[in-house]
């Protein structure tokens, strides 16, 4: 199926290149899953908070009230707020005030597409409303968190925690090219299309590079054998993040659903 889609895009590129690029970009930004499943409903429904508008999008937010500092959680691609259930239960024991939201096209939020610049714009709206002290992001949510702070430089934020974030858009797009078997000419045109949309080429959109501008204290947790976001992303980010600390795990996978990870997060948050 991916090869067939790639052939269709290449044919369309010869006839109507702009339309082909638009379709390729939308395909890249369209999640296949991430909606709330029946087994997730009770946990999420009990915490539903405001619905926040960002242009024509409606974002579902959640709140677990606590008397301590506010933490904002940012989930990854084809996921939703339910992925944080275990960590939320740990953070509640420490009385943190916890906020989360479903990304566009995920969970209970509206929309059909998601990309990091759009996600960061939504994060800004939610952060402006709830004014968190700390943000924790997983995978693409970690990418979004770093890009958000690089772009908007929120002075109220103290600590950032990034769990298994990808770093280089160029590497992701190389994988996209291989999957659809797109030509170099097509990808060069798509690169130009992306830069016209967001102001960055694929090569320039680098969380490792963006981390050079992030002054916050940070914790980066990544598994050495992560098969979704390569561990090299973590070392590249760590090399550029002046106030960041890297914790390496082994065989914890991309999701990092382990008590040791939760404990390290809490320890980092509790350290003044």
TrEMBL record:
SUPFAM superfamilies: alpha/beta-Hydrolases (SSF53474)
Entry's Gene Ontology molecular function annotations: hydrolase activity
Keyword Oxidoreductase set for record: no
Residue ranges constituting the AB hydrolase-1 domain according to the UniProt record: 70-185
UniProt xrefs under Pfam families: Abhydrolase_1
Record key words, sorted: Hydrolase
PANTHER family: HYDROLASE, PUTATIVE (AFU_ORTHOLOGUE AFUA_2G14860)-RELATED, MONOACYLGLYCEROL LIPASE
The protein's name: Alpha/beta hydrolase family protein
Lineage of origin: Bacteria, Pseudomonadati, Bacteroidota, Flavobacteriia, Flavobacteriales
């Amino acid at each position: 199926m991916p090869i067939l889609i790639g052939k269709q895009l290449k044919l369309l590129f010869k006839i109507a290149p702009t339309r082909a690029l638009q379709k390729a970009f939308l395909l890249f930004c369209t999640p296949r899953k991430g909606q709330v499943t029946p087994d997730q409903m009770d946990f999420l429904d009990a915490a539903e908070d405001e619905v926040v508008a960002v242009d024509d999008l409606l974002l579902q937010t959640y709140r677990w009230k606590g008397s301590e500092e506010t933490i904002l959680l940012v989930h990854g691609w084809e996921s939703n707020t339910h992925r944080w259930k275990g960590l939320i239960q740990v953070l509640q024991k420490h009385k943190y005030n916890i906020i989360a939201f479903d990304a566009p096209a995920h969970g209970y939020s509206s929309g059909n597409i998601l990309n990091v610049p759009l996600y960061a714009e939504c994060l800004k709206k939610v952060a402006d409303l709830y004014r968190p002290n700390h943000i924790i992001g997983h995978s693409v949510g970690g990418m979004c968190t770093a890009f958000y702070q690089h772009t908007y430089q929120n002075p109220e934020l103290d600590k950032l925690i990034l769990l298994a974030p990808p770093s280089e858009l160029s590497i992701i797009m190389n994988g996209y090219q291989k999957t659809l078997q797109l030509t170099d000419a097509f990808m060069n045109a798509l690169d130009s299309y992306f830069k016209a949309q967001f102001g960055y080429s694929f090569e320039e959109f680098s969380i490792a590079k963006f981390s050079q501008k992030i002054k916050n204290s940070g914790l980066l947790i990544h598994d050495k054998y992560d098969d979704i976001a390569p561990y090299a992303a973590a070392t590249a980010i760590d090399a550029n993040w002046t106030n960041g600390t890297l914790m390496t795990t082994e065989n914890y996978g991309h999701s990092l659903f382990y008590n040791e990870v939760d404990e390290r997060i809490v320890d980092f948050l509790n350290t003044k």
